[in-house]
């Protein structure tokens, strides 16, 4: 009987601890969700976005980081933002080591945020890029033999290299009514960091392409249809672009800065 009472007592104690722990985790999780919600609505207001962006404060447990006025990592992603030239784009920022000394754990709208490392991106999907190029069926692929996973690239986006991307579409402006695949190099204009340059280098045939040959008398015009510049591409928080490439069928422009101080209204650069 005594052993049974001891076992019952021990079991009750374990259950009590588990309940308290689960409650603590629930409170911590709920607090982080509230902080993310408040930050999302704040960014929408001060950056003049059309909708609340996705916000993730990557902190567990959350409350100790909030009490110490320091977040390890923070992500902001705004989809379908009205953007120069392409009409719409996705804006992303990933921050590491965020100092909340001049802000609260809810991050006030006008607060200055010292950030140890800041990754910034503009993502343009193939549909909007295609409209800009005059090709309603444009698709973009990474260079052959490259993989797009979350372990590569300059930042966490894992984008491809900037040379030899495969652009496939129907270049009607060249008087060519068949889908064709073209190798395209991407670069940042040397005289304007906000301008993306598209340089076609040749027609591609074979596996994983449209496999459509182009007559010699049409080749120059077809390549020219894939040649353009895309100005007005200013990264969130004014970070200088350093890398361009593809992920999936998106073109991504990104940059990284260290030891910078930002404000939330700078997320969207006009």
Automatic annotation (TrEMBL):
**Which Pfam families does the record match to this protein?**
LmeA (PF11209)
InterPro entries registered for this protein in UniProt: DUF2993
Q: In its UniProt entry, what is this protein called?
A: Mannan chain length control protein LmeA
Q: Which gene encodes it?
A: lmeA
């Amino acid at each position: 009987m005594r052993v049974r009472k001891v076992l019952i007592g021990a079991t009750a104690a374990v259950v009590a601890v588990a309940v308290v722990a689960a409650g603590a985790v629930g409170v911590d999780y709920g607090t982080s969700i509230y902080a993310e919600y408040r930050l999302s609505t704040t960014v929408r207001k001060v950056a003049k976005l059309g909708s609340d962006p996705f916000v993730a404060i990557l902190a567990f447990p959350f409350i100790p980081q909030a009490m110490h006025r320091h977040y390890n990592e923070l992500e902001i992603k705004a989809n379908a933002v009205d953007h120069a030239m392409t009409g719409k784009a996705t804006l992303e920022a990933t921050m590491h080591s965020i100092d909340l000394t001049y802000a609260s754990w809810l991050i006030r709208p006008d607060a200055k945020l010292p950030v140890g490392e800041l990754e910034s991106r503009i993502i343009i999907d193939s549909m909007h890029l295609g409209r800009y190029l005059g090709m309603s069926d444009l698709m973009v692929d990474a260079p052959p033999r490259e993989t797009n996973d979350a372990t590569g690239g300059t930042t966490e986006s894992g984008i491809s290299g900037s040379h030899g991307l495969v652009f496939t579409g129907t270049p009607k402006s060249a008087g060519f009514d068949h889908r064709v695949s073209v190798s395209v190099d991407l670069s940042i204009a040397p005289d304007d960091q906000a301008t993306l340059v598209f340089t076609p280098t040749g027609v591609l045939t074979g596996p994983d392409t449209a496999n459509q040959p182009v007559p010699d008398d049409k080749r120059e015009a077809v390549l020219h249809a894939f040649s353009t510049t895309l100005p007005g591409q200013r990264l969130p928080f004014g970070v200088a672009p350093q890398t361009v490439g593809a992920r999936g069928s998106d073109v991504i422009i990104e940059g990284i800065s260290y030891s910078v101080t930002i404000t939330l209204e700078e997320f969207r650069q006009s």
